[in-house]
Design a protein that fits this description.
The model has no long low-confidence stretch (mean pLDDT about 95). The chain contains six helices and 17 strands. It is globular. The chain starts with a strand and ends with a strand. It has an eight-stranded mixed β-sheet, sandwiched between helices. A five-stranded mixed β-sheet has the order 2-3-4-5-6, with no helix packed on it. It has about 290 residues and is an alpha/beta fold. A hairpin with a 5-residue loop joins strand 13 and strand 14.
């Protein structure tokens, strides 16, 4: 497992009984996590969080605010700055475990020795986009949510990257890639972070396991003739790292020389010294 590090203002303090205790800057939050099946003893810090998210038996949930704190604030990772704000579905606008991938993307881009264009799909609030921009790449940032793209723009401004070469696109990722292929536009790297579940324009529900092969195959066609990397993230328990690696080998690896690897990513837990699993990443790295 690869664990995220280099956070200035984020800490995973403890985990127990289906919950994690986190410090986001000066704000302490308790959020549910179904993977935390252990019931270890909770220390004194658990007694005084600023807010706790409660799941509803009917689905979704809500925040219980126990202390006053700003509706949004900033935290930092390396040279980047991010706006944090609790959202309706337990999220804060950032997945801190992804920092382990951001560090790798920065390294690959800086060591490439050539201009690098990145296509970041399902790009959320822009963590990977900012990491790539800060390493010198140009980025096409695509997300179907106008609000998330605006949030990503704010993060770019906070990080002093708003003048860097980036295209901010609000669109369905699959449809956008299909149009880019018809235009003949290609990218040196692709980053994909698709949701586990989604809804089509008519409200139809689809599951990632049923759609992911065709989606990855389509996006692999958007790679240039000399690709740097292709990264596929997943929080879907049905997609193990080995399955994701096989998927990349059958698509990207079949077209290009390079190496494919996959692993869990996670966050160090201060109270135990262990690492909390937080999803998986499969990565194709082109020949260097």
């Amino acid at each position: 497992m690869r664990a995220a590090k280099d956070w200035q203002d984020y800490r995973l303090l403890d985990t127990s009984s289906g919950e994690k205790l986190e410090k986001w800057g000066a704000v302490m939050l308790v959020r549910p996590d179904p993977q935390i099946i252990w019931r270890t003893e909770k220390g004194a810090a658990w007694a005084s969080p600023d807010a706790r998210y409660h799941r509803s038996p009917a689905g979704g949930g809500s925040w219980e605010y126990l202390k006053k704190f700003p509706p949004s604030w900033e935290i930092g990772w390396r040279e980047l700055r991010f706006k944090i704000s609790p959202t309706g579905f337990k999220h804060t606008g950032l997945f801190p475990e992804q920092a382990v991938n951001w560090a790798l993307f920065q390294q690959l881009i800086r060591e490439a020795g050539r201009p690098v264009s990145v296509l970041n799909l399902f790009a959320y609030t822009g963590g990977a986009t900012l990491a790539a921009l800060s390493a010198g790449a140009s980025v096409c940032h695509v997300d179907a949510s106008k609000g998330m793209v605006q949030w990503a723009k704010e993060n770019a401004a906070l990080s002093g990257l708003d003048g860097k070469p980036v295209r901010w696109i609000v669109d369905d990722c699959e449809k956008f890639v299909a149009r880019e292929l018809r235009r003949g536009r290609r990218y040196d790297a692709v980053i994909m972070d698709p949701p586990s579940y989604g809804r089509g324009p008519g409200g139809e529900v689809w599951q990632l396991e049923e759609k992911i092969y065709d989606l990855v195959k389509l996006c692999a066609e958007a790679l240039s003739d000399n690709p740097l990397f292709f990264a596929l993230n997943s929080y879907t328990t049905g997609l193990s790292p080995s399955v994701m690696a096989y998927l990349l080998e059958a698509t990207v690896g079949k077209r290009f020389n390079g190496e494919v690897a996959a692993d869990e990513i996670g966050l160090p837990v201060e109270a135990s010294g262990s690492v909390l699993p937080c999803g998986s990443t499969a990565l194709f790295i082109g020949p260097r």
